[in-house]
Amino acid sequence: MGLPHRPIERLKVEQQVEKFLDDNNIRERYRKQFRINLMEVLAYCEDAALQPLKDKRVVMVDDAINMLITHVTALIGCCESGYGIHFDGRGGIEELCGLIQESEPDVVLMDYDFDTGVGGTVYLTELHPVMPNIDFVGFSTQGSFKADFLEAGAIGFLRKDLSEPKGSMFDLAGILAKQEG
Predict the structure, then answer these.
(1) What is the mean pLDDT of the chain?
(2) pTM of the full predicted structure?
């Protein structure tokens, strides 16, 4: 399946893809994989269960470029807009706050473990009070951090899987539907 047939939607998706790739200095070898992933996502992004994502601007913050490529692809296909911030923790809370605010999200998927050893829950504890209109969702390969994220102010937690972003999109839609309902 190709990009959406309507020219405006196709242009919107292409612009989001290029912005993410350029802003994060994604090397050419990853760009090809990103575009292949996007084609797979577009095959399921119209599922009715994903409706809660359709009008959301979702940003993912992670230090692992492979996770960003896999999951931002799904966000671009399933949401109003999807974006990824490659953040290793070295820039500190001020840098992260600026990057998030610049992208104007409704929802932020926050990784747990950053290269500096500072956990996503530490950042969330500092970000949540200054960004009360943004819904934060914990996002980690390890499922044991759910309580930590909820205590820090997240509305939910997703376990991320490099090989299966589709499940994460359906889980995120479920969290947002519960939050809105």
Answers:
(1) 84
(2) 0.85
